[in-house]
Write a structure and sequence with these properties.
alpha+beta; 5-stranded mixed beta sheet; 119 residues
């Protein structure tokens, strides 16, 4: 279930570091107060990663209560964006790449260079 993410309308990454000792209430308060998003959006997955990149938590509102997901990898780690303190919406395809350990948000994105700067 955690690998494919089918059925989610939106998926958000909480970039940066999150204290994974937090439970449902703590993670929901991060969503609400730090990112100004509604944690009670049905079929929306919020993902969090701590300093150790081999584990993540997911928070989902199912209409009658929250579901807290936790995943710890045996080998490897998640390529988690650490540079900003915001929630980033990602697509289903980006989510599946993330679950395979592939970077979905570039650390140094390619910038468009104006032709005048090259000459």
């Amino acid at each position: 279930m955690f690998n494919d993410a089918y059925g989610f309308q939106k998926i958000y990454l909480a970039t940066g570091y999150t204290d994974l000792r937090r439970g449902i209430d703590g993670l929901a308060s991060i969503v609400k107060y730090n990112f100004d998003l509604d944690p009670f959006q049905k079929n929306t997955l919020f993902l969090f990663c701590g300093k150790r990149t081999d584990r993540i938590k997911g928070l989902i509102w199912e209409g009658d209560g929250f579901l807290l997901l936790y995943k710890r990898l045996e080998i490897g780690g998640f390529n988690w964006p650490r540079t900003t303190e915001e929630a980033i919406a990602i697509s289903q395809e980006q989510y599946q790449l993330l679950m395979k350990g592939i970077e979905v948000i570039a650390k140094k994105p390619i910038e468009e260079v104006q032709r005048s700067k090259l000459l």
